[in-house]
Design a protein that fits this description.
alpha/beta, 7-stranded mixed β-sheet, 6 helices, 36% helix, globular
Length: 200
C-alpha cells in the first residue's frame, strides 16, 4: 500500500485511539507486563497517540515515532503530561536514520502488522539498540488455530486496504529470521497476540 494512503488511514483512526488512551482495555495488562523492564533511553516505534507513555517507569528519555500526523498531534499532547523528557517525531519508521547503538530499549506495540518490510524494521531495531540492550514487542498476527488462521488469510486482502494493517502475518516466523536474541515469548488469545522479550 502507498505509504501516504496508509498514513491517511491511521489519521482517521487517531481520534478512536485517543479516546482509548487512558482507559483500561483488554491489552492493558499485556502492555504493563511487557514494559515493566523498559529503561534508560527508550525508542518507541509507531507510538500512536501515546498509550504506552504513562506505563514507562525507569526512563531517562523517550523518543517516540509515528508517521500519522494526527497520531503525532495527540502523542505530543500526551508527552506534555510525562515527567521525563519525551520527544515525538513525525517520521516513517522504515526511513529513520538514527545512529547505531543509541538506545537502551526499543519498543514496538501492535505496529509490525503495518510495515511493508517488517523484517527490515526488526534489523533496524537491532542496529539502533545498544549492545546488551533490549527489544520489547507486543504484536499480533496469524492464529495458531488453523480455522481462525484460514479466516484471517481470506479477510486480509480486504481488511489491509481499509485499516492499513495485515492480520495474517506470521510474527513468530518473521522473528526466527531476524538477528534478535529472543529470550521469551508469551502468546495469547488463540496464538494471535505475542509478548516478545529480546536482547541485542
Amino acid at each position: 500500500m502507498n505509504q501516504m494512503k496508509q498514513s491517511k488511514i491511521f489519521d482517521t483512526h487517531a481520534k478512536i485511539f485517543e479516546k482509548r488512551r487512558n482507559k483500561k482495555t483488554v491489552d492493558t495488562k499485556w502492555r504493563h507486563k511487557l514494559l515493566a523492564t523498559a529503561s534508560g533511553d527508550i525508542l518507541e516505534l509507531s507510538a500512536g497517540t501515546g498509550t504506552n507513555f504513562p506505563i514507562y517507569q525507569n526512563v531517562t528519555s523517550l523518543t517516540a515515532v509515528d508517521f500519522s500526523l494526527e497520531m503525532v498531534r495527540y502523542a505530543r499532547e500526551a508527552a506534555k503530561e510525562m515527567t521525563f523528557p519525551c520527544e515525538v517525531l513525525l517520521e516513517n519508521v522504515e526511513k529513520l536514520d538514527f545512529e547505531e547503538n543509541r538506545f537502551h530499549t526499543v519498543v514496538s506495540t501492535l505496529s509490525m502488522c503495518s510495515y511493508p518490510q517488517p523484517g527490515f524494521v526488526l534489523e533496524q531495531m537491532v542496529k539502533w539498540c545498544k549492545p546488551g540492550g533490549q527489544v520489547l514487542l507486543f504484536e499480533h498476527g496469524v492464529s495458531s488455530k488453523p480455522i481462525i488462521a484460514n479466516l484471517q488469510k481470506k479477510l486480509d486482502p480486504f481488511l489491509s486496504e481499509r485499516i492499513g494493517c495485515h492480520i495474517d502475518r506470521d510474527m513468530l516466523e518473521i522473528l526466527q529470521h531476524s538477528s534478535l536474541h529472543v529470550t521469551k515469548i508469551e502468546s495469547h488469545f488463540f496464538g494471535m497476540f505475542h509478548l516478545v522479550f529480546a536482547t541485542v
